[in-house]
Amino acid sequence: MSLSHCVELASRVKPPWRNALTLLELIVSLGILAVLSTVAVRSLDPIADQSRYEATQRVLEELRNATIGDATSRQNNGQRLIEGYVADTGSLPSDLDDFLTVPVGISSHSIQSFDSNNDAVDDVQLSSGWRGPYVQLGAGQTSILDGWGRELLVVPGVGTLDFTSNGSDGNSSLPEDGYAADLTVTISDSEYTSDATLRLFDIDGTTSTRIDPAPTGLEQLGVLLYCVNGDGGTSGAIEEVMIPVASSGTFEATKTDIVHGPAAARGILWSDTDSDDVFDVGESIIRSSYVHYFTITSDSDVRIEMELR
What we know:
- It is built from three helices and 14 strands.
- With about 300 residues, it is of the alpha+beta class.
- It has a domain at about 195-305: Immunoglobulin-like.
- It has helices at about 5-10, 25-70, 85-90; strands spanning about 110-115, 125-130, 155, 160-165, 185-190, 195-205, 210, 220-230, 240-245, 250-260, 260-270, 285-290, 290-295, 300-305.
- Strand 6 (about 195-205) and strand 7 (about 210) form a beta hairpin.
- The radius of gyration is 35 Å and the shape is elongated.
């Protein structure tokens, strides 16, 4: 074979290294991929944050409804359906776990009975107590989290309770704008308490019409009211409280800041033998009204009129 023929053959064969990238080309290619990946991820961040923001809003609204009930829920008669942690326990939750497990010192839900006229027969029945869980967790979830996977803050105030998410940045440090801003839902006592005015009447024996009561001697007017934590308790039980009614004037009394939910009342005229305005054991009822059942709602104050018979 001639030298010129060998040279011709060699020129037709490409060196194998010509099919691979040089180190410089590889570095440039990786750099371009890194930049493209960063741009792609950052372009998706607003979409992900929007989704987390909306999820957090849903969680906050769920916590509001779990606490004081859904204001839009109605019974068949159109009356608001009173439900939630406060209606059951008579108090606000102290932390998020209160929605999931029975808090220490809070009674479990039960029906409670009372003998309101001392005749050895229970004539008042109401239910109260914790009956959660009030929040349903997702699969594999063990705690209540915001859209960014962080626990929400429970912040009590004077007559208020805040549930707060610290947003995308997880803190309350400035700047607080966009998705980094804190999200808060506030519950005020005006949303779960109301007042009840209780009015007593006598019945004229001749005309059967209502007249003002006229107690004499040691006779005293009052209303036995039954509602959750009614006598100042904190366990979430239905409690009886005596509300004295003055023996002149309007013959009515007002109980303020009653937690919304079911309640009952009976007006009585009793012999207050020790003149302490308290219906004590051993003191006798002279006349009484029927037991009145009603619902305390934050939408309006309640007025109950009772006739002594």
